[in-house]
Write a structure and sequence with these properties.
The chain is an all-alpha fold. It has two domains: 1-65, Arc Repressor Mutant, subunit A, CATH 1.10.10; 83-206, Tetracycline Repressor, domain 2. Helices cover 72% and strands 0% of the residues.
């Protein structure tokens, strides 16, 4: 029986994913090359170029696969891989649950190095940035909008609130602290962020 080419291709693809993620963590994104990925994966570089046009594309696909594999191993417990942000009827509790999970992922070494590399690539590569946002960011961000609209329907958020602007009140400060390291990125920060976004910072009226 001839070898199964689909199985062989899948094995090579997974080896390439692993090589790209490992190299970025070990030597950094600038020193990670297609040649180095190919050598680490035990494939020819033409195999990589047959599927991807750049190391950024390899890394992005590897990163997406990493998240999918982690969610599958956890029994699809990742909120972004299921039906969306939990809706228990308690908006504050649901948002805190999600932001705590996001903090854990951003602090996980498996995710941090490739995520920072992809973010950096997007700064200097507008075409890649557009793909990065569409593939990795917008699907998760849209889940916030859906959850906030459900809260509006339930009377928990004012009807005149733009859910897209409200979404950014939660996720943008988290991303900024992660990128710039301006303070601790922990559960306490995530929970306070939800409270400030939901209730504001002005003195509460008696």
């Amino acid at each position: 029986m001839p070898p199964d080419s689909n199985r062989r291709s899948e094995k090579s693809r997974r080896a390439i994913y692993a090589a790209a993620l490992t190299l970025v963590a070990e030597v950094g994104y600038p020193k990670t090359t297609i040649e180095a990925i190919a050598a680490r994966a035990g494939v020819g570089k033409q195999t990589i170029y047959r599927w991807w046009s750049s190391k950024a594309e390899v890394l992005m696909e590897a990163f997406v696969d990493l998240g999918a594999q982690a969610a599958e191993a956890a029994g699809s417990g990742d909120w972004a891989e299921t039906d969306g942000i939990p809706d228990t009827g308690d908006l504050e509790a649901d948002l805190k649950t999600v932001l705590r999970a996001t903090v854990d992922e951003l602090n996980d070494p498996r995710y941090e190095a490739p995520a920072r590399a992809l973010a950096a690539e997007g700064v200097g590569n507008p075409a890649f940035a557009k793909e990065f946002v569409a593939t990795l960011l917008l699907p998760s961000l849209e889940l916030y909008v859906r959850r906030l609209r459900a809260a509006q329907d339930a009377g928990q958020v004012r009807a005149d609130v733009d859910p897209y602007i409200a979404r950014d009140l939660f996720v943008s400060p988290l991303a900024q602290r992660w990128l710039q390291g301006t303070g601790p990125l922990d559960h306490a920060f995530a929970e306070r962020l939800v409270e400030y976004a939901l209730y504001g910072i002005a003195p509460r009226r008696p």
